[in-house]
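User: Just a sanity check before I run the rest of the batch. Below are the structure tokens for the first item. I only need the designed sequence back.
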């Protein structure tokens, strides 16, 4: 059963404890609010200000699990705080670990500060959970992907346009990378895992079966990430990875050598914004 008063009080205290810079927002010169404004939190949680304000006042509707998950992420709650929020709202907390899509506050704080850098947070099977604006411009809008297609490994074998975003000479290597990654995850997580589900769905694809039957493991991707962007052309980027071992999430940060052609193209993308790309 929902605890409306407890929920409202907890939301208010968490909101007031956050500063704009904690969540990647700019602090105005005439700011008087000690913490975040309600409209700022509503924007972070992708809901209306009125809806969020009613939850704080204890007069709103019974929020769904999806709404509570969005609020927990928007407020940068810890896992313990997230679970408490779910219970106050009358829901069982979601699972933790590799099956969770809840991004830790630490990774979120780092991502929030990468405003001029392509970056994304992904799950172990390659579902993109969060992107920076420039990450979206380089890699495509992950929010448009649904179902198995959220996984880059699944899209690689089922959507020809995804391969077209990578140089032809690297496509065979990347096929082996994705197949071997799924094989290793199945051994780690078991036959009921998301990796096993994706591998089963891909058995109808002849190219996947070819590299799958080779039983490769430990195949590493190329040192550089090379993308064929539909607007600026080829991008040669370094990819640095930060791992959250508790959630099995990875923060991928893409950088170009200063002064290089790819560096200039990234600067151009910060100006022209996002494009509709499929990968």
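Assistant: Here's the designed sequence for the first item:
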């Amino acid at each position: 059963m929902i605890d409306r008063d407890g929920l409202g009080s907890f939301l208010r205290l968490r909101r007031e404890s956050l500063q704009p810079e904690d969540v990647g927002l700019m602090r105005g010169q005439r700011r008087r609010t000690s913490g975040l404004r309600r409209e700022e939190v509503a924007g972070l949680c992708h809901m209306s200000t009125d809806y969020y304000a009613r939850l704080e006042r204890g007069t709103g509707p019974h929020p769904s699990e999806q709404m509570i998950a969005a609020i927990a992420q928007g407020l940068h709650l810890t896992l313990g705080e997230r679970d408490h929020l779910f219970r106050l709202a009358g829901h069982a907390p979601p699972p933790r670990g590799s099956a969770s899509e809840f991004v830790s506050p630490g990774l979120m704080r780092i991502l929030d500060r990468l405003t001029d850098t392509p970056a994304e947070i992904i799950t172990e099977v390659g579902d993109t959970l969060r992107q920076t604006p420039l990450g979206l411009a380089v890699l495509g809008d992950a929010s448009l992907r649904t179902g198995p297609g959220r996984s880059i490994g699944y899209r690689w074998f089922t959507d020809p346009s995804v391969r077209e975003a990578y140089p032809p000479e690297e496509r065979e290597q990347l096929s082996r990378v994705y197949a071997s990654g799924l094989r290793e995850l199945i051994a780690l997580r078991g036959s009921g895992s998301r990796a096993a589900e994706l591998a089963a769905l891909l058995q109808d694809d002849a190219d996947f079966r070819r590299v799958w039957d080779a039983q490769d493991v430990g195949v590493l991707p190329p040192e550089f990430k090379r993308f064929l962007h539909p607007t600026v052309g080829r991008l040669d980027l370094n990819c640095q990875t930060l791992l959250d071992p508790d959630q099995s999430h990875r923060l991928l940060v893409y950088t170009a050598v200063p002064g290089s052609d790819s560096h200039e193209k990234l600067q151009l993308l910060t100006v022209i914004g996002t494009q509709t790309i499929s990968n």
